[in-house]
Amino acid sequence: MKAGAAVLGFLPAFKDINTHETHLSVNDDGSLALIHLLDGLPDHWVVERDEQGRITALKDGIVAGFMRQGRFFTRSQLAQLRWDA
Q: Averaged over 25-42, what is the pLDDT?
């Protein structure tokens, strides 16, 4: 569902299930990413980085999913959508 989801308007994103804050996945240059990337997420979500500064761990409650038209979908919700309707 990665690149195919983007074609259908579903963009890789992350959500904090406790605060409902969402962020789209972005590349180093700030453009929208076609895959889930941790770098670019807000610092208050990060609990660990490696020696190069790359994110290696996020706080509890951050889930990967997809955004479409302002709505967040988990991977399981996306898998359950009816695609032929």
A: 94
